[in-house]
Amino acid sequence: MPEMYKTTCCYCGVGCGVIVHQQRDGKIWVEGDKEHPVNKGMLCSKGMNLHYTVMDTTDRLLYPEIRYSKYGPRQRAGWDEALNRVAAVFTAIIQRFGPDAVAFYASGQCLTEEYYVVNKLIKGFIGSNNIDTNSRLCMSSAVAAYKMSLGEDIVPGCYDDIELTDCIFIAGANPAWCHPILWRRIEAAKAANPNLVIIVSDPRVTQTCALATLHLQVTPGTDIVLHHAIGRLLIEQGCIDPVFIRDHTEGIEPYRQAVMQRTLAEAALICGIEEAAITQAAHYIGNTDKLMTMWTMGLNQSAIGVHKNLSLINLHLITGTIGKPGCGPFSLTGQPNAMGGREVGGLSNLLPAHRDLLNAQHREEVQQFWGGTTLSDKPGLTATQMFEALNSGRLKAIWIMGTNPLVSLPDVRMAEAALNKATFVVVQEVSNKPETLAYADVVLPAAAWTEKEGTMTNAERRISYLPQLTQPPGEALPDAEIICRFARKMGYAGFDYPCMEDIYKEHARLTAGTHINISSLSYDVIRRHRTIQWPYNGEMEQPGTRRLFEDHRFYTASGRARIHAFGDENQSEPVSPEYPLILTTGRIRDHWHTMSKTGKVNKLKQHIPSPFLEMHPEDAAERDIEQDAIVEITNRLGNVRVKVKLTESIKKGLVFLPMHWGKLFNNDSSRANNLTHVLLDPVSKQPDFKFSAVQVTRY
Ligand code: SF4
C-alpha cells in the first residue's frame, strides 16, 4: 500500500491542501485534499502536476560549489568548505565596510522557519536590516495600506466570505488564471446564488471577465479615479453607513472633499469608460451590505500602489462593509508564504510579529529576546534598492535565497550589471537554471517542496504544516539548516536548533501579546486541525480566527479605521510621441513566476508554449503589424522581441507581455522586465510593473 501524507501546495497564496501518495519505490503522485477547508479536493493545473517537479531531479543543484576568483570556474566543495568561505568573506566585508555592506534577498516561497532564521541572523547578529524578499514586488503596497487604514497588516476576512457575499469587486486581478481554486469557489458561489454581483475592473478582458456582471475596462493607472468616482456617487446617493462612519472611522471630511474634486463625466473620460458603467458599479456597491473587494498586482505594482489600495479599502469604510460575514477588503496573495514571511518580520522595515523597526520599544523587545547585537534603527535596503546599491558599490555582497531576480526584477539589465559588479554573490537555490548562478561565487544547494519540514501562511491568515516526505537529492539541505550552519560558522549563539519545530516555537513565542498571537500554537495542534487561522487563542472553539474586527475596534491608536484622502494623478512614466503605448506585464495560467518549477512540466508548457505580445488590432494596423508577426518592443531601458497576438480583448493603446520568460539560449530578447522601470511607490517601495511607455514596431 502506498503511504499517504497531507501537505500544502507550494505555488500560490491560495494555500490548497494536497495529499501526496508515495509508493514503495519512492515515486509520488498528488491529489487535492477533500477535507481541506480551502480547496475541498480541488487543485489547479499547477497543483495537479506538482509531483513532476519533485520526481524530476535532472535540474537540481546537488553539491555546494565555490569559485575563488571572479572569472574562474566553480568547483564542487563540501558544506564546511563552502560555508567557511562565505563566513570568511562576509566577516572581511563587514569588518572593512560595516554590516550594511552585506544583504540577503529571499523569497515568498521560503517557509516561515527559514524566513525566521535568516531575519534573526542579519538583524539580530550581523547588525544590518538589509533583508528583503521578492514579496516586495508583490504585496508591499497592500501591507502598507492595511497598516495605514486598519492599523495592522491584516486581511480581515476569510475565503468562506465568498459563499456569503452579495457583491465581489475584483480590481486589477485575474483570479481565474492566477488564483484558480479561489476562482472555482467564486464560480460555485455564483452558481448557487445567480444574484451574486461580480464587478471586474481591468484594462484587459481576461478569463475572470467571463463571469462578470459588469466589466469596467479602465485605462491603466486610473483606478483611484474610478474608486473615488464610486465613492462620490455613494455619498451623493446616501448609500453610505453614517453610523459606522461616525462611530468607527476617522477622516471622512477630507475624503468627501477629495472625491468631490472630479465630476462623474471627468472621471469617466479619464478612466476611458462610460459614465453609466461607473453609476452601475456604484449602484451595485451601494445596494448591498455584503461587499467583498479582491485585488492583486493591478493595484499593488504601481507608483501609486498604496493609494490605489487605500482608495478601494475606503469604499468598505464608508459603507461599513468590514468585520461582518460576506464583507471586507481581501488582497489576494501571490506567493504561498508572503504572509508567513511578514509574520517573522522578513522585510527590511519590519521586526518579528509585525513589530515596527522604527519603534524603539519593539527593537528593545526583540533584542532582549534574541540576545545578539544591538538592533539597527536604520531601515534596510528593499529589493530594488539592493541592486542599485550593488551597482553603485555601496553594497558589496548579496546572498540570494530561492528567487530569480534576473527574471523578476524591474530594469533587469541593471540588476545584471549590479551582480556583475558585486564583490561577492551567494546563490542558495534548488534549481540549476536561474540566471543568477552565472554570477555566483558560492552556490548552496537547497531542499525543495516535500524535502523539508515547516509552516506556511496563506492569504486568509491560515497556517499549514508541511512535513518532510522525501529526501533531498545529492547534498542539498533545507534552507533553514543552511542558514543556521552559516550562523554558527560566524560564531553567533542561538542558531543551534535540535529540530525545525524549535525554530517555529521561538517565532511563536515572539508573537505573544501581539495581534498575530500564535504563542500557544504547536505543530501538533496545526496537524490535528489540518490548518489554523491566526490569531490563535488556545481556548477557542473554532480552529483559529476566521474574521477580524467584528467588534469594529480597529488596531489604530484611536481604535477607528482611518479613511485616507489623496489626489488621483497617476505617477507612472507618461506615454510620449516616441513611446506612445502602455506596456503591462503579468502571469499566464499554467506558469509560475520565473518557471523554475512549471518549466519542468511538459503538460504545463503546452497551454502557452512561448512568450508573446498581446496587442489591439487597431494599434497593430497603425504599425502595419499582422497576426503572428515578430515585433520589437522598445523603450529607453531596452527591448524585447516576440510574436504578436492580436486581440480586441485588450484596450487600445495598451500591450501585454507575460513576465515568466528569462533568457532563452543565453538570449534575453523575450524577457519582459528589460522594459520595466525601477519607479517605486514612495511608501511601499513596490515597483511600477504595470505601466511602462513603449513603442512597438515590426521586426
Ligand atoms: Fe496551488 Fe494555488 Fe493552484 Fe491551489 S490555486 S493548487 S495553491 S497553485
From TrEMBL:
UniProt entry keywords in alphabetical sequence: 4Fe-4S, Electron transport, FAD, Flavoprotein, Iron, Iron-sulfur, Metal-binding, Molybdenum, Nitrate assimilation, Oxidoreductase, Periplasm, Signal, Transport
GO annotations of cellular component type: membrane
Cofactor(s) for this UniProt protein: FAD; Mo-bis(molybdopterin guanine dinucleotide); [4Fe-4S] cluster
Keyword Thylakoid appears in the UniProt entry: no
Enzyme class label: oxidoreductase
Domain 4Fe-4S Mo/W bis-MGD-type: residue ranges: 2-58
Catalytic reactions on record: 2 Fe(II)-[cytochrome] + nitrate + 2 H(+) = 2 Fe(III)-[cytochrome] + nitrite + H2O
GO MF annotations, alphabetized: 4 iron, 4 sulfur cluster binding; metal ion binding; molybdopterin cofactor binding; nitrate reductase (cytochrome) activity
GO biological process: cellular respiration; nitrate assimilation
E.C. number: 1.9.6.1
Function statement: Catalytic subunit of the periplasmic nitrate reductase complex NapAB. Receives electrons from NapB and catalyzes the reduction of nitrate to nitrite.
UniProt similarity note: Belongs to the prokaryotic molybdopterin-containing oxidoreductase family. NasA/NapA/NarB subfamily.
Protein name: nitrate reductase (cytochrome)
Native source species: Filimonas lacunae
